[in-house]
Amino acid sequence: MTDTNWIDAAGRVLADTYKRFPVVFESGRGATLTDNQGKQYTDFVAGIAVCNLGHANSGVAAALSHQAERLFHVSNLFYTMPQVELARHLVDRSFADRVFFCNSGAEANEAAIKLARKNFFDRGQHNRWRIVAMDLSFHGRTYATLSATGQKRVREGFEPILEGFDFVDFNDIDALKQGITENTCAVLLEPVQGEGGVVCADPDYLRAVRKLCDETGTILIYDEIQTGIGRTGRLFAYEHYGVEPDIMTLAKALGNGLPIGAMLAREDICRAFTPGSHASTFGGTPVVTAAALEVLRQIERNDILGYTCKTGEYFKTRLQWLKERHDIVEDVRGIGLMLGMRLSVPGAPVVSACLESGYLINCTQEYTLRFIPPLIITREQVDGLIGCLDEILGDAAGGVAK
Ligand SMILES: *Cc1c(COP(=O)(O)O)cnc(C)c1O
């Protein structure tokens, strides 16, 4: 089949839930992808912050196939070694004491929401089940998580949504003070909002959130599904702030492309989950946990965090260089290799022009270009994109500027 035929076939047989670019990818290596016409692209999307160690990572592939030849699955009625090892690795490197494994980000957040509510139920505080979440947050597409998402567009047409979510402005501590009531069990936030346009929490804000949660006995949940596993130059974004949560959710990059999610919690909080409280058939199977363990080991073995900090800083200075040269660039922000560039014009034409030139980038909140490449991206690859954007932004200022 030709390229067009696959795209036409997809149009006939797939649920039409995604706005897709007309590219059929066939293979990848590192930060490079190849489509079925043989055209190569440099990837600054990484499957939306998923393939942090690059495409077709040979170490992860080896861990995966080694485990696949021994055991795929036995169910959580029994123990398997990779699951325990992965949990131990995560616990040793985070604030958390316990881990619940699942298969996606939304499921990790579902577990967090259930655990938060169960904590207060168990203490007899049956009126404390509301959760304060942030405007422009994104937490997933299941019923609970879309109810927790501060963007109207994900809820439209699906009401009635799950009850009990209140929304306040991100980075506004007074709004949060107003938002937390005697019925609140938890505050849920992303340390750096991803889908919300790459917006970092202010350090003072996050410290104040922690203090407010402590004073009111409210559970603090970080959604680190996008920011976790090295994306920001630390294993978890909260480490930049020195402000720990009570519960944290992970997914995206944990399996470098294999479906795995995790909810981490402190001992005293996790006690509310007892046998029968919560479950997932596929949660933490030997195959995905063996692969995720290799992901975490590679991050340490190859000093991926140090490399991410250095490349991220370089990338950011290059984006700031673009800002100085182009009036339509309003803001450059982000941390590590989670960077955003806000434009005064819609970003979609820029994304398409980049694709045409062999660079994958994406756009959030209509005006913010987002750069979330594999963490192994090189300076030369960054320079390539910057050169491409320099041309495109020049054209865009002539053609699309208001
Ligand atoms: C992607 C994402 C989710 C949802 O993860 P899925 O695996 O798509 O369910 C939740 N929260 C954040 C911050 C995300 O970036």
Q: Could you explain the architecture of this structure?
A:
This protein starts with a helix and ends with a helix. Helix 4 packs parallel to helix 12 (286-301) and helix 14 crosses helix 15 (379-399). The model has no long low-confidence stretch (mean pLDDT 96). It folds into two domains: 3-56 and 303-396, Alpha-Beta Complex (Aspartate Aminotransferase, domain 1), CATH 3.90.1150; 71-301, Aspartate Aminotransferase, domain 2, CATH 3.40.640.10. Helix content is 40%, strand content 18%. The chain is an alpha/beta fold and 402 residues long. It has a seven-stranded mixed sheet, with helices on both faces. The protein has a four-stranded mixed sheet with strand order 1-2-3-15. A four-stranded antiparallel sheet has the order 13-14-17-16, with helices on one face. The structure holds pyridoxal-5'-phosphate (PLP). Residues 104-106, 109, 138-140, 190, 194, 223, 225-226, 251-252 line the site of pyridoxal-5'-phosphate. Residues 104-106, 109, 138-140, 190, 194, 223, 225-226, 251-252 line the site of pyridoxal-5'-phosphate (PLP).
